[in-house]
Design brief:
Strand content: 15-25%
CATH architecture of the largest domain: Up-down Bundle
Number of strands: 8
Low-confidence stretches: 12-18
Number of domains: 2
Mean pLDDT: 90
Shape: elongated
Radius of gyration: 22 Å
Helix content: 40-55%
CATH class of the largest domain: Mainly Alpha
Structural class: alpha+beta
């Protein structure tokens, strides 16, 4: 019995060591410098949701990990858990989205995605559907789709994943089927018919075409939204609606939507 004790202790130590490490695919959402050569990264991981880690020494010349940890890249990381910020032990680049980086509009949109995810996602908690949604959005930007349509699809998809899917088929006040006329959007969570809108304040008017796009995305018809020719005025309407709704949910304004709103006017 006594001869087995060292072996059992060794196996226990190995298990504890493995428990302190985890491997996951991750998207680099944001980063900031800290100390003399380190960076704090905000990640969206497939295994643990949103988390913050520190990459030691990546700002030193010749760092092996530096090129694998660029914002908006998909990487596979090995992370060591600590009592403070977890530490990136290894990183392997999976998708750099190099074509996307040639477009200032696409990069600005990816930055908006990072801010939105950082603001709305809980720490260390996987929200079903968010990681594949974010990865798909970056792939669409990399493929050259209009950043305005990609941003709209991403915003609506994220709201759905988080349980804030707006109602766009019926009036949220009287439950009547909405007619193909100019209706209004309420930050309470959806569209309001013309009759109910007369007695309510702080509503955002929406044209018929803007409502059509909302319904297409709500039904999961993404391809038409990506390929339709949509005028700047409609994108502007939708930007006001989505960003006002998100600000209500988050409890504050975001900085990036102002940039995205300007892009949607192009």
């Amino acid at each position: 019995m006594g001869r087995d004790a060292p072996s059992e202790q060794f196996e226990s130590a190995q298990q504890q060591h493995r428990a302190r490490l985890y491997r996951s695919n991750a998207i680099i959402l944001r980063r900031r410098d800290t100390g003399e050569a380190d960076r704090i990264l905000t990640l969206l991981t497939e295994a643990h949701g949103k988390t913050r880690v520190v990459a030691k020494g990546v700002r030193r010349p010749g760092s092996r990990m530096a090129g694998h940890l660029e914002p908006f890249s998909v990487v596979q990381i090995l992370v060591a858990r600590t009592r403070g910020l977890d530490i990136v032990s290894q990183a392997e680049l999976r998708s750099a989205f190099s074509a996307m980086r040639q477009s200032e509009r696409a990069v600005s949109t990816a930055g908006y995605f990072g801010e939105l995810l950082d603001l709305l996602l809980p720490e260390e908690q996987v929200v079903d559907g968010v990681f594949p949604l974010a990865t798909a959005a970056l792939e669409l930007l990399d493929q050259g789709y209009d950043p305005r349509s990609v941003a709209f699809v991403f915003e609506m998809g994220l709201l759905r994943c988080l349980g804030y899917r707006p109602r766009v088929d019926r009036c949220i006040v009287c439950d009547a089927v909405l007619q193909p006329v100019s209706n209004a959007f309420s930050v309470e969570g959806g569209l309001v018919c013309q009759g109910c809108a007369l007695a309510r304040h702080a509503l955002i008017p929406l044209s018929v075409n803007a409502q059509k796009l909302l319904r297409l995305v709500d039904r999961g018809e993404i391809e038409p939204v990506l390929r339709l020719r949509v005028g700047a005025a409609v994108w502007s309407e939708l930007a006001v609606v989505v960003h006002t709704y998100i600000a209500r949910i988050a409890g504050r304004e975001l900085s990036a939507p102002r940039v995205i709103h300007e892009l949607r006017l192009d």
